[in-house]
Every structure is written in structure tokens, then in C-alpha cells.
């Protein structure tokens, strides 16, 4: 029978050394990144996960939205939080606070003043700091769509009248002015029974009358005067 003279201490030593190295790596990683324990990190909830605004260029700002920051009901871990944004057109209020069991509402507003039409991207960085010294960050993406203003048709006035029945009728003249009975140079028309006046400056009340002209150049008196305001 052979006598056992050793028990392979290398095997035991190697196993212990691997455990020690593994534990050392975990300790270094935790110290370098300051990771929050999982049970603490799950105690926070940030919603919604993204925000989207829409407005018209040169128009009113879009309706404010909010971000809810809450703790898990069964946890109650006190947290200090801050929020920062990455765009000058974003505003956050309040930008910091403390939360344990309640829900905090943060108002987010977008200002489109001076912005050209287009799509703008930004983010809100939520930083949570627990009572154990750890921190975690959550990024909430924000999209702002600024639509171009709608192009409206220029204001116009359409006049209609009953045509004359004279055989020597040559046409009509349309008179227009901004004071009753006071007109500028007439618009000379042919044998028509309606006419649309466009390109008039807004913010005025216009007064209009029509005359008939025969082939000899004779002109009738004014028709009844009509008026309308253009805004």
C-alpha cells in the first residue's frame, strides 16, 4: 500500500485565490461606479418615459406637461432628486426636491418664441440620490415639433350686380375708397356682372359704387354704395 504524502494544497489554494479575486473585482467596481443596491434603485419610478410637444411657428406655446417622480409604496426610501434639461427652450419647475412616500409633480414647459419650423430634440436628466449615498440617473427624451404657420388667402371683396340691358353698353367702372362718397381712380371693366377686388390692406372699411359706361364714353351716376370691413 502506498502512503499519501501530500493533499494537493495547490488546488485548495487556487480556489480560495479565485474567490478572493472575484470579491476584489466586485468591491472595486462598486467603489468606482457608486452603484445603488437593487432594492433601493427599484424604489423610484419616473413617468412618462418621454415627452412630446407640438406648436405653430410664431404662435402660442404648447400646453405644459408634467413628470411624476414617486417612491415604491412598500419601500419609503428617502431620496433627494434634481432635474436638468439640455435645451434653452425647455423649463423645469421645480428642478429639485426630496421624496420618500409621496409623488412629486414636475412641470415641464416649452417656449417656441424665436424658433424656426422643424423638429427639436432634447432630454431631461433625472438624478436620484439615496440616503445610502448612492445615485442613479434616468434620461427622459423630449421632442418639440414646430409646424410652419398656415398660409391663408389674402382678403378680397367680390361685387355682383344686375347687368344693364342697353345695346350700346360698353362696360362698367368700379369705385372704391375708405370714406363714404370719396373714391380713388376707378377700375375700368368690360361687360361683366361681377368683379373681385383683392390685395386690399387689412384693418380698413371700404366703400364701393359702380357706374355704367356706353360706347360713346358717357358715364351714368353712381349706383347705391356698399361697404365692408377687411381684417
Detailed description of the structure:
- There is one protein chain.
- The protein is mostly beta strands.
- The protein is 13% helix and 45% strand.
- The protein is built from two helices and 15 strands.
- Strands 2-9-8-4-6 form a five-stranded mixed sheet, with no helix packed on it. Strands 1-3-7-5 form a four-stranded antiparallel sheet, with no helix packed on it. A four-stranded antiparallel sheet has the order 12-11-14-15, with no helix packed on it.
- β8 (118-130) and β9 form a beta hairpin.
- The longest helix is centred in the N-terminal third of the chain and has 25 residues, at 9-33.
- The protein is rod-shaped and about 105 Å long.
- The termini are far apart.
- Mean pLDDT is 81; it is low at 1-43.
Amino acid at each position: 500500500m502506498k502512503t499519501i504524502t501530500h493533499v494537493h494544497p495547490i488546488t485548495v489554494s487556487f480556489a480560495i485565490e479565485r474567490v478572493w479575486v472575484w470579491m476584489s473585482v466586485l468591491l472595486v467596481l462598486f467603489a468606482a461606479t457608486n452603484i445603488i443596491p437593487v432594492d433601493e434603485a427599484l424604489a423610484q419610478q419616473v413617468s412618462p418615459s418621454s415627452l412630446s410637444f407640438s406648436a405653430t411657428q410664431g404662435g402660442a406655446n404648447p400646453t405644459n406637461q408634467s413628470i411624476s417622480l414617486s417612491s415604491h409604496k412598500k419601500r419609503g426610501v428617502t431620496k433627494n432628486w434634481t432635474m436638468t434639461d439640455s435645451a434653452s427652450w425647455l423649463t423645469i419647475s421645480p428642478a429639485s426636491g426630496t421624496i420618500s412616500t409621496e409623488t412629486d409633480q414636475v412641470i415641464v414647459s416649452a417656449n417656441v418664441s424665436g424658433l424656426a419650423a422643424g423638429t427639436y430634440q432634447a432630454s431631461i436628466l433625472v438624478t436620484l440620490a439615496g440616503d445610502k449615498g448612492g445615485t442613479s440617473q434616468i434620461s427622459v427624451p423630449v421632442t418639440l415639433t414646430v409646424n410652419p404657420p398656415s398660409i391663408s388667402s389674402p382678403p378680397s371683396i367680390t361685387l355682383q350686380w344686375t347687368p344693364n340691358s342697353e345695346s350700346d353698353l360698353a362696360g362698367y367702372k368700379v369705385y372704391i375708397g375708405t370714406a363714404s362718397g370719396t373714391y380713388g381712380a376707378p377700375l375700368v371693366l368690360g361687360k361683366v356682372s361681377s368683379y373681385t377686388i383683392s390685395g386690399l390692406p387689412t384693418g380698413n372699411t371700404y366703400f364701393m359704387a359702380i357706374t355704367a359706361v356706353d360706347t360713346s364714353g358717357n358715364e351714368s351716376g353712381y349706383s347705391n354704395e356698399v361697404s365692408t370691413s377687411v381684417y
